[in-house]
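During the first year of the project, the team set up a workflow for recording each protein of interest as an amino acid sequence followed immediately by a discrete structure-token representation. This format lets reviewers and collaborators read both layers of information side by side without switching files. As required by the reporting guidelines, we include two representative entries from the current panel. The first entry is reproduced here exactly as it appears in our internal archive.
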Amino acid sequence: MSNKISIRFYKDHKVRAVWDEKHNHWWFSVLDIVGAINEQDDHEKNRNYWKYLKAKLKKEQSEVVSATTQLKLTAADGKKYNTDVISQEGVEKLAKSIHNQQAIDFLDWLTYSDNSIDGQSRKKAYTLWESNLVADEDVGKVKALQQIHAYLFGGLYDFAGQIRTKTIWKDGTLFCRAEYLPENLKIIEAMPDSTFDEIVDKYAEMNVAHPFMEGNGRSTRIWLDMLMKRNLKKCVDWSQIDKKQYLQAMKRSTTNTTAIKTLLKGALTDHIDDRELFLKGIDYSYYYEQED
């Protein structure tokens, strides 16, 4: 069993998963699925619901129960516990057995999420850990950011890795005008990045520049972590940063970086060689981009 883990987010509810290398599929936490479908965060209520449903399905001799197995997954307290898990095929059977609109909506999301551009890109992002994509001397440069973007979105966007030539807006925010972008990127690249404050200032400026048509946030957060790992021997534990707080802080960072610096500093860790932390960070990074 591979130790590749994943956290999916359905309506802000976590659904933990682990990759089975031998059988080439994901196993999903049944309790998380039940909680997501019922929009319930109380672990005990989800456990009791699954206990009731499991007994009912056993009595009906449903294939759902036999489709489950147990694997150790990391819980909210940071410890690993044996947890009932089920494959995607099993999830389809489970959703049909619950048989309500919420279950159907969840199944539609699960089936689509892995096949969307974000889903395909996220799968590529997982492999960045082993890729040695960016040379150490290029970390913090525009070239490195382009390499990351091309890696994540190659084959998905025809502009993967290419600096945009059109001016773009998002939620009323005007990013750097295309005609000024090449010169602006040179200025950002030359910014100092030896200290935490310098790195975050550089990150905030790159966010304002928004060098690509799409995929800026996902690429730039990886770029930021590479910078911190090389220069500070630290990285961000993105799972410690609330989505709404992060988005609000980044919006403010166009004029004042205090809020984003506070958030990032509170989530810094020296576990830069922790593969599971990296994979979890990818999931949270992609979660930040999901529409509410």
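The second entry, processed by the same pipeline in the following quarter, appears below.
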Amino acid sequence: MDLKGIKLTWLGHATFRIQTKRGTTVYIDPWVMGNPMCPESEKNVRKADLLVCTHGHFDHIGDAVAIARKHNSKVVGIFELCTWMQKKGVQQIAPMNKGGTQQVEDIRVTMVNAVHSCGIQDDDGSIVYGGEACGYVIQFESGLKLYHAGDTAVFGDMKIIHELYAPDVACLPVGDHFVMSPREAGYALNLLQPKHVIPMHFGTFPVLIGTPQELEKYAPKSTNIVAMKPGQTLE
């Protein structure tokens, strides 16, 4: 898989770090310190220019506020989530909503739909409104397009994501229970038609029983399944 100059590291669950050709460091769904799948060597975040957040559940934004405050990271997310983070002391937010595209640093970020919930567990344990869950299509200067689905069920309009954006790489949840199972993810791949898929959001908790190996039963032969290990970097 040729990523055309970017470095993509999976940190377990739905968390990825991207380093662009210009040197921008991007974290998608930054759950690092508390993530049991994240290697210990990766839990000390040294640089984070940009955080891209799909929704407000703890296993996706668990370390977002701490990282953003430490590194003065810019946070991309749906409006309500960004506003909540600003109240928690995040200085730089780049709020947006579904269907919109914005240039952030040296990447173009398009927010697309996801079918999932988005309550934020606040400091006192209460659930506050976090907008809606979403996914992203990220386009790099080389033209490479990466789709991070966030937490989602399969939905028919994934076909629109293919027709409008034609992502080269899709990061899809396969763990079942809270997200798609491998069967649904295989159906999603028929709609999205990416060249490559990276399975994510599996194995972290006992209920997440789906596996990349099971995805092989349902994925179209035209899609290359890239089963990464936590801490592994592709470039």
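For the second entry, the following points were noted during internal review. Helices lie at 58-61, 64-71, 79-87, 158-165, 182-192, 212-215. The mean pLDDT is 97. Both points are flagged for discussion at the upcoming steering committee meeting.
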